[in-house]
Design brief:
The complex is a heterodimer of chains A (about 120) and B (about 110).
Chain A (H helix, E strand, L loop, with lengths): L3 E4 L2 E4 L5 E7 L3 E9 L5 E7 L6 E2 L10 E5 L2 E6 L8 E10 L8 E3 L3 E5 L1
Parallel strand pairs in A: 2-11
Antiparallel strand pairs in A: 1-3, 3-8, 4-5, 4-9, 5-6, 7-8, 9-10, 9-11
Chain B lengths: L2 E3 L4 E5 L4 E3 L2 E3 L4 E8 L6 E6 L5 E3 L5 E5 L4 E6 L8 E9 L5 E3 L3 E6 L1
Parallel strand pairs in B: 2-12
Antiparallel strand pairs in B: 1-4, 3-9, 5-6, 5-10, 7-8, 8-9, 10-11, 10-12
Classes of the chains: A mainly beta (about 120), B mainly beta (about 110).
């Protein structure tokens, strides 16, 4: 498995501002993903973070609202731009394909970032 | 598009009761199936997984799940629950067309001591 950390763990932000969430993995991974878990709901995939190229976004999510970076095989950021109260959610980083099992489909999740937008 | 259904949103059991949480998915091709658990205040952890082979898979903490292809189901079971099993349980499916996991809506389990 992989040890995944996220910063910040939580934040309270004003509408109209942006927040960048960092995801750090303790080893190189093949795939990195960003999910959203809205209050009382299940997880929804926002995008797959691709190393060295643009992220692949799922339906309903766009790069202007959720720009993502992945400069290397252990780190990714997700920015929530021009926030509104509807963006209040837990944002989770997930990885698969750890060292030793680069083609594994098992996904491991970070602790999440709890975002509240006022 | 594939979807995952968990029919029980909330389950309340007494300790030592048996547990079965339903999970059904819609996808006709090859799938990988997962159950994740989220204990209060903690992050998601992988409970067990099915990729191929024996359709009865065993996971951590005495949990098991059975893949029934004809029913598109992957139900989670535990013969005797403990108070510490109180958590939210998520079923997830990955098809062979990509790396995306599709999650069910989750089932909140409360075990009364």
């Amino acid at each position: 498995s992989a040890v995944i950390s996220q910063k910040p763990s939580r934040d309270i932000c004003q509408r109209g501002t942006s927040l960048t969430i960092q995801c750090q993995v303790d080893s190189q991974v093949t795939m990195m993903f960003w999910y959203r878990q809205q209050p009382g709901q299940s997880l929804t995939l926002i995008a797959t973070a691709n190393q060295g190229s643009e992220a692949t976004y799922e339906s309903g999510f766009v790069i202007d609202k959720f720009p993502i970076s992945r400069p290397n095989l252990t780190f990714s950021t997700l920015t929530v731009s021009n926030m509104s109260p509807e963006d209040s959610s837990i944002y989770l980083c997930s990885v698969s394909g750890t060292s030793g099992r680069p083609n594994s489909y098992e996904q491991y999740f970070g602790p999440g970032t709890r975002l509240t937008v006022t | 598009a594939q979807s995952v259904s968990q029919h029980n949103h909330h389950v309340i059991l007494s300790e030592a009761a048996s547990l079965e949480l339903g999970c059904n998915y819609s996808y006709g091709g090859t799938v990988n199936l997962f159950w994740y658990v989220q204990y209060p205040g903690q992050h998601l952890q992988l409970l067990l997984k099915y990729f191929s082979g024996d359709p009865l898979v065993k996971g951590i903490k005495g949990f098991e799940a059975e893949f029934i292809k004809s029913k598109f189901s992957f139900n989670l079971r535990k013969p005797s629950v403990q108070w510490s099993d109180t958590a939210e349980y998520f079923c997830a499916v990955k098809n062979n067309a990509g790396n995306m996991l599709t999650f069910g809506g989750g089932t909140r389990l409360m075990v009364k001591p």
